[in-house]
Amino acid sequence: MVFVGEAKMPEVKISVIEYNENSFKTSTFGQIEAVLRRVPAVLANGVTWLNIDGLHDIALIEQVGQHFGIDRLTLEDLLNTTQRPKLDDFESYVFLVVKVLNFNKTTMSLEIEQISFVLGKNFVLSFQELEGDTFNSVRQRLHKSGSLLRRRGADFLLYALLDTIVDNYFVITEALNEKIEDLEERLLYENNSVLINEIYALKKELGQLRKSIYPLREVIVTLDHNESQILSSDTKWFIRDIYDHTLQVIDHIDTFKDSAGTLLELYMSNISNKMNEVMKVLTVISTIFIPLTFIVGVYGMNFKNMPETEWEYGYFLILGLMVLAAVGMIYYFRRKKWL
Amino acid sequence: MVFVGEAKMPEVKISVIEYNENSFKTSTFGQIEAVLRRVPAVLANGVTWLNIDGLHDIALIEQVGQHFGIDRLTLEDLLNTTQRPKLDDFESYVFLVVKVLNFNKTTMSLEIEQISFVLGKNFVLSFQELEGDTFNSVRQRLHKSGSLLRRRGADFLLYALLDTIVDNYFVITEALNEKIEDLEERLLYENNSVLINEIYALKKELGQLRKSIYPLREVIVTLDHNESQILSSDTKWFIRDIYDHTLQVIDHIDTFKDSAGTLLELYMSNISNKMNEVMKVLTVISTIFIPLTFIVGVYGMNFKNMPETEWEYGYFLILGLMVLAAVGMIYYFRRKKWL
Amino acid sequence: MVFVGEAKMPEVKISVIEYNENSFKTSTFGQIEAVLRRVPAVLANGVTWLNIDGLHDIALIEQVGQHFGIDRLTLEDLLNTTQRPKLDDFESYVFLVVKVLNFNKTTMSLEIEQISFVLGKNFVLSFQELEGDTFNSVRQRLHKSGSLLRRRGADFLLYALLDTIVDNYFVITEALNEKIEDLEERLLYENNSVLINEIYALKKELGQLRKSIYPLREVIVTLDHNESQILSSDTKWFIRDIYDHTLQVIDHIDTFKDSAGTLLELYMSNISNKMNEVMKVLTVISTIFIPLTFIVGVYGMNFKNMPETEWEYGYFLILGLMVLAAVGMIYYFRRKKWL
Amino acid sequence: MVFVGEAKMPEVKISVIEYNENSFKTSTFGQIEAVLRRVPAVLANGVTWLNIDGLHDIALIEQVGQHFGIDRLTLEDLLNTTQRPKLDDFESYVFLVVKVLNFNKTTMSLEIEQISFVLGKNFVLSFQELEGDTFNSVRQRLHKSGSLLRRRGADFLLYALLDTIVDNYFVITEALNEKIEDLEERLLYENNSVLINEIYALKKELGQLRKSIYPLREVIVTLDHNESQILSSDTKWFIRDIYDHTLQVIDHIDTFKDSAGTLLELYMSNISNKMNEVMKVLTVISTIFIPLTFIVGVYGMNFKNMPETEWEYGYFLILGLMVLAAVGMIYYFRRKKWL
Amino acid sequence: MVFVGEAKMPEVKISVIEYNENSFKTSTFGQIEAVLRRVPAVLANGVTWLNIDGLHDIALIEQVGQHFGIDRLTLEDLLNTTQRPKLDDFESYVFLVVKVLNFNKTTMSLEIEQISFVLGKNFVLSFQELEGDTFNSVRQRLHKSGSLLRRRGADFLLYALLDTIVDNYFVITEALNEKIEDLEERLLYENNSVLINEIYALKKELGQLRKSIYPLREVIVTLDHNESQILSSDTKWFIRDIYDHTLQVIDHIDTFKDSAGTLLELYMSNISNKMNEVMKVLTVISTIFIPLTFIVGVYGMNFKNMPETEWEYGYFLILGLMVLAAVGMIYYFRRKKWL
Fold first, then answer.
1. Which residues pair with C87 in a beta bridge?
2. I want to staple E252 with a disulfide (CB 3.0 to 4.6 A). Which of A210, D222, D236, E173 is the partner?
């Protein structure tokens, strides 16, 4: 077994929450042995949620795996952070891989974290790459003794955790929506070639998003159709709600993809328009002055016999004629809407 | 429970219509308590239609929910106005979310309102974001004592309400069709860069339309396949009619999407044609005058020994030659169809 | 009930054909009452084909509907000429809406007419918007006493009518094929911007065609899978033949769509090529004459001390040099294939 | 019944091959009557393969049809050479239409021939538009007494014939592959506008190919799923082999379609690059000479008081300055990589 | 039977590995007869893996086929190296064709090798075009006596071999990813037309990849759904793991395809931007100097009566005016951001 990915935390952090309708206990551990001594694999009643932040300590993961009877294949999958979102239904537990997205506002880029869940009869194991505040809202709801979360089983806890993750996707789509509207705005007023690179970066982000979220649709359908006793039919109603939200996120991404395509078309038409404008300036200037320059060239010739040059007011006559010609051409361009 | 969306009305308005084949009563209430005292959750006979305009009063929605035995998930969904059209089939009722589209003629933009329906055995609850006249035609038909609507049950009322909404989509497609034909017309005669922004706006509107209407197809199929006793098989015939209309609207949107793509191509080819025309003017002017300017330059040189300048009619000869050259080039451009 | 569409005929025309293996009678009526008195709804033996040209007389349509026991929904659908091709399978009859296409050679445009059929146990009702010659070939085959059409029932008559309509689609695809080949030809020799509008018009026509014909595929599959006794299994073999033809027409339309896309690309590359050619002319002229004009400018300067101007043959020397330079540049452009 | 297509042969040719494991007899006939007298419709043992080249003799086709009990619809289909590849499963026989492709090397174009097969219990009828050598390899294998072909039934003969046709498709894809590689090569070195027409022709050929081959996939699936006793399960193994080959051909065509699209993009980018190059030449020449021409113009002015013109070496000074300016600009263009 | 492809090795190499939980033996042979004498077709216990490198010796392949009871069709397929990845499920064995990809770093191109597997009850036959090190890691794991591979059957060996091949695909996607990022980088800084050819080559490679890997998805699904006793349900869990990896590779290829499309758009917009820049230089130079050249032309005319030329400081006045005009125009271009 090897850890595939980069260790994003120096040390692994382990926290355990045990609760039932009446009691609630939360503890943090540095050593996995202490945890496993404390938490029996098969719990009499109540729900245990074991959360592990940081995946690079393979020995620790193996110990947890053996304690809870988790297949080696599952352990390999959760150690590989380049997984696709997926669901594996073993008989004694359900294994899920999902992606958490964060829009890092300092680097203005999308960060993707993989979270794996193991749902057993009355426990949930969650494995995160990073210590984060994604699940804080769930922890707060677990504190309240009368809450739905406290009254229901481990499957409902999994639902609550997944729901938090999917709700978080809407924050990302909101940020992307703003980014697209900002690009639109700037395409109207700016013309520089930085925009094409931003559009390209946007397209790449949408690609990452798609890879992280599209497979989730299938994962949740599989979860809904799961026939083991690990998921109660009550919870499935809630799972369907997550499904609706996932579809909505996918709708957004599809729309964004269309928009990105149209932004590119806007950009290309902007370049063409700009070139058209440049060409018009050149053409107007050339068309006015080239014929006039020809005329003055004519009277610069050194022929002996050029009657006009002998006229008293020849010079002024020619100047007048040239002014008339220039005015005529300007009028013509006006009519053609080039000026 | 939270209200997701913007409160589009200052106060919530509640109206109740109770009818059966023989009687019809309509009432408006300010307080939900009065309504619920009046309307028993399980009605002996006849149909009750409770319509609520404005969704920001969560307490009120909760009271209605408890009275009619509606699931908390359903209430959460109807309070979230960013829903995708969907149908949830609970055993005791059917929950539907659909989108109503309005083309605001003053702002020339598409407005989307979410309407949720709860269909029970003999009641229909409808929840609108805004007080509107969408359902006035249904109210008028309910007034007529002999009408089909009066003779049938709550499921037929739901059909009538959905039918009104889907028929309204045709008004939108009609407006978009005009918009597209107007853009086409202007693309033939105008050349300005405003058009690209209008095409872009059109594409965005089509995206919104698609998101609002495409999921409806599936919703109506699910409604048709519904096996509970809430929908009679007679009404299903009518539901299939709505299905046909939805398909027709989707056909229209698909066609519009194609048209928008082609409009963009027309626009791009217009820009190219325009640039071509500008280039031709420049080329014609340059090609005629640059050689002539060279010739007059030749006779402007100050060499001591330039025989032509000494000729009596040298000047006129050269002028004549230049006229011939110009005529020749104009003839050449004519033949090439550049003039 | 309302008529949706435009009345394309001043008066409604009604014709009735009654036939069995041995007898054949055709009659035309001005008044529907006379027809209905004559034609009992349930016929002992033989087949009755009632054809109505013109749909704007709602009262008439209602009378026919009542006489043959046709549902109100069906009547509403056949009065709406903006229907999508569809099939509704009522227990006592089958209702079909199809589109007839005509390529009007004077206006060079596609005309779409809606024809609705009601197939009962031993009658066929057909409702046309226009009096046309579409079904003349069927009438002629009905005249012949030994023909297959005479020996079979109403379902076979419906097959024959649908077959005529689908065969007619091939006339349209043939006309479009010619149009596309004509556009191709002209794109090679002409360069004007009318072509883009013709390509755009072609694309719109293909869109209409698609909307009229694609849904027919599903209609015919539904007809083939129909399990009522109205369609005999013998006739189904023939229906499958229509299905094959519909697929073939759809193949053609798909090919045309591809061709239209490529025509646009041809057009765009033509514009670019043309601009390239214009640019080359400008560049050749400028590149040859601008340096020469500079040289003659040099000897037009009025410096006191310019030795060359004093030379006996300075002028001729310079002329010779310029001819050489011009020849050199022409040679260079030849090698670059610009001339 | 009518023949749809063009008669590609002056006279119809009929050949019969009768064989079983032990005997083999081949005969050619001019008159169909002789054939039918000789070949009973229901054969005791052995396989009969009747091949007809040329389809324009309708009477002959009808006689064959009656003799072997073939449906009128089948006969109509095989007389129509514009059919889509298809399979009709009648109870007593299976009817197949496929397309044979030939790449005519003299006209460099694709020729499409339709071949229809009727597979009965122990006979195969094949109908070709043209007398060709497509099936010669099958005939040769039939000559060898111990061959698999001789040991198996009529269904295996059909497999062998289809296999020959599908194998022949690879010859076509090979030819197209060469054509595409040739176009690629020429796009790198040539720049003329003939290429766009060749790319367009290629796209049309790919369209024809697709129409001829895509439906075959479905035909072969249907043949494989055929449940009548006409096809033995042994032969089905072989049919699946043809299926794999068809998929491979379709893979090739899909790849070619992508390539054709990219060729077009290469062509367009070539045009743009070429125009860029032309523009650069114009710009370099203009940018160097236009300022110089201005300078010489300055000293061509006829002002009384122009000190520089009086200087002894003014002329040479100015010439030197202009050389410096020109060198400077050339250096600048070099740095910008325009030269 | 013929070998389709090119013989990539001079001589065929045969190696046999026999193992069970306790023993392990590896041998290499030059003659197939020796191998077959040694290896009985039906093995009592343990697993035999026979690997053949080089496919051009048809006689050898036939001997192996007869020995292990392999169908002639299978032999034909494995001799044809242009196969599509596929799975054929014969009752006594499963036949698989897959593609191994190698990125040759010296030629910078993709090399595709076909490997065929025959999985029997307790043997695996593998047929490679080339002697390679693809399976070395599997051989090493087989050496370790306690390994999972040694404890399981032939089906698990097949899994391990397939897993190695699919894992190798990630090396290719990694290489392609680098290639794309390198192209992106260079598109920002370089402008030459070599890039378009590299993008085109990339697209072709992606096409090959798609053809090699997409069909594998279906192959693995079929393997997973295989109901024969050759695959144990334990191994199927592992097969599903390969399936996940295949989907991941396909995700990558889809993303690359999108990226390649966008690279092309970047390239085209780069060309346009470059042309725009060239045009601006030309326009700025022309617009400044053409009017000035006109002015100096005016004072180069030879009219007798031109008052300005008589003024003491006329020359300096005109020079000053021209400097002002030039400065004004430069200011104007600055404001328009052209300079």
1. C96
2. E173
Give the nearest partner residue to D237 out of E73, E83, E264, using CB atoms: E73
Question: How many Cβ atoms from other residues are within 10 Å of residue D320's Cβ?
Answer: 11
Q: What is the pLDDT of residue A191?
A: 66
CB contact under 8 A, E241 and A73: yes
**E68 neighbors E118 (Cβ within 8 angstroms):** yes
Handedness of CA C168, C170, C173, C174 (dihedral sign): negative
| Nearest-CA distance C300 → chain B (Å) | 4
Chain D: give the shortest CA distance to residue C290, in Å: 7
Cα separation, C54 vs D98, whole angstroms? 44
β-strand pairing of C47-53 with C94-104? unpaired
Which residues are CB-contacts of E320 (< 8 A; sequence separation ≥ 6)?
A: none
Return d(Cα D62, Cα D78) in angstroms, integer: 11
Reading the block at residue B100, the tokens are: 């109503």
Q: Is the complex ipTM higher than 0.85?
A: no
| Closest CB from A274, A302, A315 relative to E305 | A315
3-state secondary structure of C339: coil
User: Hey, of D202, D268, D289, D319, which one would you mutate to test binding to chain C, going by the most C CBs within 10 A of its CB?
Assistant: D289
Contact list in D for residue E319 (CB cut-off 8 A) is 298
* Nearest CA distance, B271 vs chain C (angstrom): 11
Q: How many CB atoms lie within 10 A of CB C218?
A: 14
C-alpha to C-alpha distance for D339 and D97, rounded to whole angstroms: 62
Tokens found for residue B319: 């002028």
- pLDDT by residue (tens digit) across A58-96? 999 999 999 999 998 899 999 999 889 999 988 889 999
Residues 6+ apart with CB under 8 A from E173: E249, E252, E253, E256
Tell me the C-alpha distance between A261 and E258, whole Å.
11
- What is the per-residue burial (b if ≥16 Cβ within 10 Å, else e) of D149-184? bbebbbbbbbbbbbbbbbeebeebbebbeebbeebb
Task: Tell me the percentage of chain B whose pLDDT exceeds 90.
Answer: 43
Cβ distance of E196 and D297 shorter than 8 Å: no
CB E267 within 8 A of CB A262: no
> Which chain E residues are Cβ-neighbours of A315 within 8 angstroms?
301, 303, 305-306
8 Å CB contact between B45 and B152: no
The enclosing H or E element of D194 equals helix D194-225
On chain B, the residues whose CB falls within 8 A of the CB of C313 are 305
Instruction: End-to-end CA distance of chain A: give it in Å, rounded.
Output: 72
User: What is the rounded CA–CA span in Å between residue D313 and residue B328?
Assistant: 43
- Rounded to an integer, what distance in angstroms lies between the CA atom of residue D190 and that of residue E289? 37
Q: Which chain D residues contact residue E306 at CB under 8 A?
A: 302
Closest CB to A290 among B285, B306, B309: B285
Question: What's the start-to-end Cα distance of chain C, in Å?
Answer: 72
Cβ-nearest to D275 among C279, C286, C294: C279
Q: Which residues of C touch D302 (CB under 8 A)?
A: 302
Q: What does the alpha-carbon distance between residue B61 and residue B233 come to, in Å, rounded to a whole number?
A: 31
Q: Do D272 and C272 touch (CB under 8 A)?
A: yes
pLDDT (tens digit, 0 to 9) for every residue of chain E, 339 residues total? 788 888 888 888 899 999 988 888 888 887 788 888 877 765 667 899 999 998 888 999 999 999 999 998 899 999 999 889 999 988 889 999 999 998 887 887 888 999 999 999 889 999 999 888 889 999 999 988 888 899 888 999 999 999 999 999 999 999 999 999 999 888 877 767 788 888 988 998 999 899 999 999 999 999 988 888 888 888 888 999 899 999 999 999 999 998 998 898 888 888 888 888 888 889 999 999 999 999 999 999 988 888 888 888 889 999 999 999 999 999 988 888 777
